[in-house]
Specification:
Blueprint (H helix, E strand, L loop, with lengths): L2 H14 L10 H19 L1 H32 L7 H29 L7 H38 L1 H7 L2 H18 L7 E3 L6 H6 L6 H14 L4 E3 L1 H4 L1 H41 L5 H41 L6 H11 L2 H16 L1 H10 L23 H10 L5
Antiparallel strand pairs: 1-2
Helix pairs in contact: 3-4, 3-13, 3-14, 3-15, 4-5, 4-7, 4-14, 5-6, 5-7, 5-11, 5-16, 11-12, 12-13, 12-14, 12-16, 14-15
Length: 413
């Protein structure tokens, strides 16, 4: 190959790598361009790690702390005398599960992003293997299925009016919470077998102390080298890395524990909204204009709450599930760099979902806002606009519809 051809080839390489350097004139120039090209490729490869750090160390912790405070207020509010109901019990359980999810996320993902050296601590390794890692998945499963529970509760209140008194009460709700919690623990048990402790190597601090006669700079370098070569105090088990663990994570945990609740919540809420609208249309002619207006306002409020809470759940959980499945399976034809970068953001979807319910209650529920203000020591006038339809039925001809609307809206009013 002639010199001109070589120079042209190097120009093309420089243009492809996006470099702006003087025209190559020899081996040093070509070597420099290759080094710069590798540097750009390395920077591109670390983008998912940078996104993961931003989400876990900066964005998610802020959302977690705000969400934990909101969930505590939600628990207190739903347990006030005027808010106690089967729906309130399920939403209390969901708030407890969401608080646990946020707490464990901070103690696992955020803490490792802030202080990577905790992975070398045997005490933290024990917490991660047997409390933190399985605990966060247990709380996630409970939160998801508590959403299913409250959806079924609302479905019975609206679509099975004659069965509502029998099945929609606090005793039944408490039994449902216990049953969901027990089943979630059993089906989540393989996560307790996912990680195990490893015997740590020699303590690097001991090596550092044995070189006490060294200069400060040299001793510091030795400590840093010892820390770098130190092994993480926990590792994945053979079950987790084997076919059984991969089968469980993909088919059992992702498909069954997430997709089935996803479609159940979506389908039931569509039926709830349709049933509420049909009931109001059927009884509109039997009510006074004021009753029709109040009923319509209640319908709109319930619709907003159902759409807000449900589709927030569907969006964040659905997005996280799809991207996690692609991340695990790595299907052919997908740009894995984009998948890895998206996973760094999508993994925080459960954090957003666990933090937003309290604010959705505040935005869509007047009765919830009124009780919350009382919890915070702010007393408001309980006027007609703040009263629920259950406090003042408008007539015998509309008793069933009014009861349906008030009980269904108890979660948001």
């Amino acid at each position: 190959m002639s010199f001109a051809e070589t120079s042209s080839a190097l120009d093309l390489l420089s243009s492809a790598l996006g470099l702006t350097s003087p025209a190559p004139s020899g081996a040093d120039s070509a070597e420099r361009m290759m080094e710069e090209g590798m540097k750009k490729m390395t920077e591109k490869a670390t983008l998912p790690e940078e996104l993961n750090f931003i989400m876990c160390a900066i964005v998610a912790p802020i959302i977690c702390f705000v969400g934990m405070a909101g969930n505590v207020l939600a628990i207190i509010t739903w347990n006030r005398p005027k808010m106690r109901s089967s729906t309130g019990r399920y939403l209390t359980g969901q708030a407890v599960a969401d608080f646990t999810v946020l707490m464990f996320f901070v103690l696992i993902d955020s803490l490792m992003a802030w202080r990577p050296e905790v992975k070398y601590s045997r005490a933290y390794a024990f917490f991660f293997c047997y409390i933190g890692y399985p605990g966060i998945f247990f709380a996630i499963v409970c939160s998801i299925w508590f959403t299913v529970g409250v959806t079924i509760d609302r479905y019975i209140l609206v679509c099975w009016i004659t069965k509502a008194k029998q099945y929609c009460n606090e005793k039944r709700a408490n039994f449902g919470l216990i049953l969901i919690t027990f089943n979630s623990f059993i089906i989540n048990f393989p996560h307790y077998l996912s990680f195990t402790l490893v015997d740590p190597p020699n303590d690097p601090s001991a090596n550092a102390s044995s070189h006490g006669n060294m200069s400060g700079t040299h001793a510091h370098t030795e400590v840093k080298m010892a820390t770098v070569t130190q092994e993480v105090a926990f590792k994945e088990t053979e079950f987790q890395t084997g076919a059984s663990g991969q089968f469980y994570e993909f088919w059992i945990h992702c498909m069954i524990l997430i997709l089935i609740p996803w479609f159940t919540v979506f389908g039931m809420n569509v039926m709830i909204i349709r049933a509420v609208r049909r009931s109001n249309q059927k009884n509109a002619g039997k009510k006074t204009s004021a009753s029709v207006r109040n009923c319509k306002q209640s319908e709109n409020q319930i619709t907003r709450l159902l759409l807000a809470v449900t589709f927030t759940f569907l969006f964040f959980i659905g997005t996280q599930c799809v991207i996690q499945c692609m991340y695990m399976k790595k299907p052919a034809g997908f740009n894995m760099f984009i998948v890895d970068s998206s996973f760094a953001i999508a993994k925080c979807g459960i954090v957003f979902n666990s933090s937003m319910n309290f604010f959705l209650y505040c935005v869509t529920g007047r009765r919830f806002r009124a009780e919350l203000l009382k919890v915070l020591g702010v007393h408001v006038k309980d006027d007609q606009g703040m009263s629920s339809l259950s406090d003042r039925p408008t007539g015998s001809s509309s008793r069933h519809t009014t009861s349906t609307m008030s009980t269904t809206g108890s979660s948001g009013m």
